[in-house]
Amino acid sequence: MASKLLHCVDRFEEAVACSGADMRGGNPSPGNIAVSHQNH
């Protein structure tokens, strides 16, 4: 299962790179940041 997921992620990143975007270089918007509730 993990290898299938990684394959899908790789394909997605390739598609994004072909469009000229950089997924890893950007910062997420505040609404897309997961909040940990462990200490709350």
From TrEMBL:
Keyword Hydrolase: yes
Record keywords, A-Z: Hydrolase, Plasmid
Chain spans, region Disordered: 21-40
Molecular-function GO terms, alphabetical: hydrolase activity
Highest taxon of source: Bacteria
Name of the protein in its database record: UxaA family hydrolase
Taxonomic lineage of the native organism: Bacteria, Bacillati, Bacillota, Bacilli, Bacillales
